[in-house]
Amino acid sequence: MRRTLPLLVVLVALVGAVVGVVVLRDGESVAGTPAAAATTPGTTTTVPTTAVTTTVPPPTPSPSTPPAPPAGKIKPGEPRSGVATFYDSDGGGACSYDPGPDPLTAAMNETDYEGSAACGAHLLVESGGKRITVRVTNLCPAPCRPGQLDLSAEAFAQLAPPVRGEIPVTWTLVSPETPKKIALRYKSGSSRYWCAVQVLDHRNPVVRLEVLVGGQWRRLGRAEYNYFLAEDGAGCGGPIAITDVHGERLVVDALPVRPDVVQATNLQFRRAG
User: Fold this and answer.
1) How many angstroms separate the CA atoms of 159 and 209, rounded?
2) How many whole angstroms separate alpha carbon 237 and alpha carbon 137?
3) What is the C-alpha to C-alpha distance for residues 254 and 263, in angstroms, rounded to an integer?
4) How many Cα neighbours within 13 Å face the side chain of 247?
5) For the chain, first and last CA: distance in Å?
6) pLDDT at 11 over 80
7) Among 149, 168, 179, 249, which is least packed by CB within 10 angstroms?
C-alpha cells in the first residue's frame, strides 16, 4: 500500500497532463471547431449613393500636406533620349483631346505613355542644337520604341528636314507659361450612376484625380483614353481634387454632370522650375 499511493498520484498527474494538451490548428478553436472569422479591415458595405445626403460642407484638404504623387516614368528634371519621327497630326488622338490650332504636338511611345499618364505633358525636345516645346496628345504604338516621340510634321520640320525621317533627340518635361485655366469635362453618357472625368489645359501632367464621397476623398482609376472613371457613380457631380506630377493639389468645387461640355475653372498649377 505504501508503494501503490505514489504510483496512483503519478498516473493521475499523467492523465491530467494529457487532458490539458490541446493542439490548435489554423482555423480551429480550442475545442477543435472552426474559429469565428476575424473582421476583415478591407471589407466594406455598399450603400446606394442615392440614399446618402449631407448638409455638412465638404472638408477642404490642407494645401500644406498634399498626398505624394505616384512615381511615373516621366519625371521632372530627368532628360530622356530616343528618336523622333513624324506624322500628320491635328492635335487629337488617344488622349481624347479635341483637335486644336497648336501644331506642335507629339505622340508618346507606349512605354512612356503609361496608360495616358503622359497626356498633356509639355516636353522640351532638342536635336542638332535646335529645340522646341511640344504637348503630348496621342499614343504611338509599336513599333515605336521606349523614348521615341512621333512628332507632328510641323514640329519635326523645326528640328530637321522631313526627308531625314528619323532623328536622335533628347527631351525633358517642362512647365511652360500659359494663359489658360484648367477645365473639366464629363464624358458622353455620364450621369450620377456612372461618370468619367477628363482634365483639360493643365500646365503640368496630372497624376491623380479624387472625388469627395461621404466626406472622404476617393481616388479614381484612369483609362487609357485619358478619363478618370467612377464606374459605380460615387462622387459624380461632387468636388474634385487634382494632383500634378510636382505634388500640387487643387480642389475644384462641385460641377454639374453635363456630358461633353467643357467646364472652366479659375485654377491652374504653378509653374515649376
Assistant:
1) 35
2) 26
3) 11
4) 9
5) 98
6) no
7) 179
Average pLDDT, the chain: 81
pLDDT of 57 above 90? no
* 156, 235 Cβ separation under 8 angstroms: no
The whole-number pLDDT of residue 241 equals 98
pLDDT value of residue 72: 67
Parallel/antiparallel/unpaired status of strands 240-244 and 249-252: antiparallel
Cell of residue 25, nine digits: 490548428
Q: pLDDT class for 202, splitting at 50, 70, 90?
A: very high
In the chain the domains, ranked by start, together with CATH numbers, are 80-174 (2.40.40.10), 183-264 (2.60.40.760)
Using one digit for the tens of pLDDT, what is the confidence trace for 126-173?
999 999 999 999 999 999 999 999 999 999 999 999 999 999 999 999
58 pLDDT higher than 80 = no
How large is the average pLDDT for residues 229-248?
A: 97
CB 127 within 8 A of CB 160: yes
The pLDDT of residue 73 is: 83
Q: Are 139 and 180 in contact (CB under 8 A)?
A: no
Contacts for 203 with CB less than 8 Å, ≥ 6 apart:
122, 175, 176, 178, 244, 268, 269, 270, 271
Burial zone of 27 (CB within 10 Å; 0-12 exposed, 13-18 middle, 19+ buried): exposed
Q: Is the Cβ–Cβ distance between 207 and 244 less than 8 Å?
A: yes
Output the nine-digit C-alpha cell for 113: 505613355
| Burial class for 119, CB neighbours closer than 10 Å (0-12, 13-18, 19+) | buried
Residues 6+ apart with CB under 8 A from 53: none
- Contact between 108 and 136 under an 8 Å Cβ cutoff? The reply is yes
